[in-house]
């Protein structure tokens, strides 16, 4: 354990190393797992808690059953159910040693985890009015950013909080967003329907300040929910806005591998669940699409 170093997210490791090592050294003697294996699994989990969710390094918070359940069901969707069960089992054994009083809550069945439903065109039109109808300039700006970045580029809260004006490229081929926050740096093209709003937001932005505004690290993964609870009117939810982007791409026939790339996923095991929201083609279009006429493929 003293020589362990993670291969990914090496910048976060110095901040969490003592916490992870203390937890695993206490738990390992009381489990069937080696300290090395527990350290590897716990490092990825604690990194996610701190970077993606903004949680404090407190055993009762990090190793809560709610955090472990969310990590197993949401963060590791690209892995098999067996792998996710193994990860969760190891993290739960650590939790049972560190915070035994939290061992009575029921966990989410991994095999039945659903996905967020996308919004309809009518709902999205309503949310545009919702954004523009907020009572302060700051709230209007943030509401617009929430729609643009989640529904227009499928960004997560942790990827929004540090987004600088300079990370948004405006060119003849459209607007591109450089994602630096979170664990999946990438370049995402913004849906064309949001170009006008993004252009207006950039026009009023200060170069040295994130688009969302001065950072508040206490928000973390709760950035959007912390904001919308103080807005007026029926507000959108971030994961449903991202689902709307996914379904829009699938409906348009975007290459699946490139959808993975834009989302920052290596695998996409929830794809069949999103396909349930895609409208099937009529018979003529279905036959023509699969013939690949004129495509040269």
Order of helices and strands: HHHHHHHHEEEHHHHHH
The second-level CATH architecture of the largest domain is Orthogonal Bundle
Query: What's the main sheet like?
Result: 3 strands, antiparallel
By CATH, the superfamily of the largest domain comes out as Intergrase catalytic core
Approximately how much beta-strand content do the residues carry? Answer: under 5%
Could you say which overall geometry the principal axes of the C-alpha atoms support?
globular
Structural class: mainly alpha
Radius of gyration: 21 Å
Cross-sheet strand order for the largest sheet: 1-2-3
Number of discrete domains: 2
As a percent range, the share of helical residues equals: 40-55%
What's the number of helices?
14
| The level-1 CATH class of the largest domain | Mainly Alpha
In total, the number of strands is 3
Low-confidence regions: none
Mean pLDDT: 86
Q: What is the CATH topology assignment of the largest domain?
A: hpI Integrase, Chain A
Distance between the termini: 52 Å
Keywords: DNA recombination
Organism: Leifsonia virtsii
Protein name: Tyr recombinase domain-containing protein
């Amino acid at each position: 354990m003293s020589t362990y170093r993670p291969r990914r997210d090496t910048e976060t490791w110095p901040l969490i190393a003592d916490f992870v090592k203390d937890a695993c050294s206490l738990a390992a003697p009381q489990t069937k797992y080696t300290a090395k294996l527990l350290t590897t699994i716990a490092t990825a989990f604690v990194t996610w808690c701190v970077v993606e969710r903004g949680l404090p390094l407190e055993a009762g918070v990090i190793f809560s059953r709610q955090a472990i359940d969310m990590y197993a069901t949401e963060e590791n969707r690209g892995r098999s159910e067996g792998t996710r069960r193994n990860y969760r089992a190891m993290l739960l054994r650590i939790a049972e040693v560190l915070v035994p009083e939290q061992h009575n809550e029921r966990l989410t069945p991994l095999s039945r985890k659903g996905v967020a439903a996308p919004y309809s065109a009518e709902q999205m039109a309503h949310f545009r009015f919702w954004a523009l109808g907020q009572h302060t300039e700051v709230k209007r700006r943030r509401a617009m950013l929430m729609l643009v970045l989640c529904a227009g580029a499928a960004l997560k809260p942790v990827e929004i909080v540090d987004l600088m004006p300079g990370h948004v490229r405006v060119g003849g081929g459209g607007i591109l967003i450089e994602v630096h926050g979170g664990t999946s740096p990438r370049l995402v093209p913004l849906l064309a329907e949001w170009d006008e709003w993004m252009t207006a937001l950039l026009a009023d932005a200060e170069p040295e300040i994130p688009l969302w505004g001065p950072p508040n690290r206490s928000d973390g993964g709760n950035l959007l929910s912390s904001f919308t609870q103080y807005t007026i009117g029926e507000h959108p939810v971030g994961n449903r806005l991202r689902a709307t982007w996914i379904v829009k791409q699938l409906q348009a026939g975007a290459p699946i591998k490139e959808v993975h790339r834009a989302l920052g996923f290596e695998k996409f095991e929830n794809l069949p669940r999103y396909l349930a929201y895609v409208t099937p083609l009529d018979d003529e279009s279905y036959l023509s699409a699969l013939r690949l006429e004129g495509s040269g493929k």
